[in-house]
Amino acid sequence: MIQLIRGFKDILPGEVELWQKIEQTASALFEDFGFKEIRIPIMEHTELFARSIGEDTDIVEKEMYTFMDRGGDMLTLRPEATASVVRAYIQHKLYAQDPVRKFYTIGPMFRRERPQKGRYRQFYQINAEVFGIASPYIDAQLIFMLATLFSRLSVTDIKAHINSLGCPQCRPQFKQALSDLLAAKTEVLCSDCQRRSSRNPMRVLDCKVPSCREAMSDAPSLSDYLCSDCKTHFDMVKKSLDKLKISFEIDKQLVRGLDYYTRTTFELQTGSLGAQSAVAGGGRYDGLIKALGGSDIPGIGFAIGFDRLAEIVSLNRPDIEKKADIFIAALGEKAQEKAFEWSCAFGITGIQAETDMANGSLKSQMKKADRSGADYVLIIGDKELEQGAAVLRNMTTKEQTEILMENVLESVTATVRR
Ligand code: ATP
Ligand code: MG
Fold first, then answer.
1. Ligand 1 centre and the CA of 102: distance in Å?
2. Checking CA distances to 155, which of 111, 295, 313, 365 falls within 20 to 30 Å?
3. Is there a contact between 177 and 220 (Cβ–Cβ < 8 Å)?
4. What atom in ligand 1 is closest to the CA of residue 309?
């Protein structure tokens, strides 16, 4: 038997209801904050990701699904959404009327990482991006929106971690200080970090190898190197979060795995997921739109790990599978035909009706009715057809009432909706 690809997964009925609920909750909330949905392709030219995420990052170095298509183009399954949303913004001149635009998008991402709990090769993200706003208020508002989403989903064990990565003005001094430290610690770093030390020292701060984290515990903090504009910006973000009563902690090791971030970066972490504690991450990327060929327009966004969020929400609420509203048990050919007509009529009025199209015995149909979870069963056979009345059975009380066939739709709808 052919199995699914390692690191990929099916989201089955029973679980998918939760995904739908999260999706609906997120889009309703985001729309209330002025975001519009955008849908982007799952594949792009490799260069888009290489240029935006950065050549020396884990994602570009070793996690992307890249291949040459039959026409010789290098293509990549998207490892994240921001680059594509920025590309669409530039390509379709979505800034033309007003550079301020807010978008959200929900869909699969692909990274060839080592599969484990909370880490897949096809995983899903809920993304939000804001273009054209430099004010720190939007940074705080995005974090507020995230926190609100989690609380609407009854996820409480959440903490916001924030940091500032500075800007091209102040970062070089920090990088220098970091490089000096790394030079002194070369022997204790993993081989990846030894290579990163010279090419992209900030990546070392993001390494998950325990010995590297240990070595970096006394690393310099970017917050000590911020230029005055970056410092004012960061102070304002913190003040605004206080005002919104969002509790946060400053995490100087939070540098995020993508090169394009500037100033505010943040992550929402939870204690309920074990090692994969980050449920959402994001930050400001003021230079990205320009780097991808657009104008000098600031940007900021976040990505929620949908799989991890679904996992946490399901810990609180294991079963929300939708049950049938009514089961129609029909005996004999004529009754089957009636059941078929009724089930179609119920379906278009929003009543979920199940029937047994295999024409089983009454006993087997009642068993199926039980399994369908329906609270009511409508029973018809030759006798009922002749008398023009069907039997409606309440599965909880076992009480049975007769209802006129010509009123079946109205009566059942009224009973089921009560
Ligand atoms: P991590 O530190 O866990 O590797 P990341 O920094 O690589 O995360 P981002 O690129 O910021 O992750 O993506 C945002 C969110 O997407 C993460 O916080 C996480 O919840 C989720 N995510 C990232 N990679 C995976 C994956 N392979 N499987 C499932 N979820 C993922
Ligand atoms: Mg990662």
1. 22
2. 111
3. yes
4. 20
Count of positions (residues) in the chain:
418
Q: What is the pLDDT of residue 292?
A: 96
CA–CA distance, 108 with 253 (Å, rounded to integer): 28
Determine the 3-state secondary structure of 194 from DSSP: helix
Closest ligand to the CA of 127: 1
Give the pLDDT score at 50: 94
60 CA distance to ligand 2 middle (Å): 11
Residue whose Cα lies nearest atom 29 of ligand 1: it is: 119
State pTM to two decimals: 0.89
Q: Which pLDDT does position 320 carry in this prediction?
A: 64
**Any residues with Cβ below 6 Å from ligand 1, and which?**
80, 111, 113, 118-120, 123, 125, 256-257, 276, 278-281, 303, 305, 307-308
Interval between CA 259 and ligand 1 midpoint (Å): 15
The dihedral through the CA atoms of 387, 389, 395, 399 has a sign that is negative
Sheet holding 43-45, edge to edge: 43-45, 74-77, 65-68
User: Contact at 8 Å (CB) between 402 and 352?
Assistant: no
Distance of alpha carbon 199 from alpha carbon 348, whole angstroms: 61
Low-confidence ranges of the chain (pLDDT < 50): none
pLDDT tens digits, residue range 255-310?
Answer: 877 778 899 999 999 887 777 789 999 999 999 999 999 999 999 999 999 999 99
Amino acid at 27: S
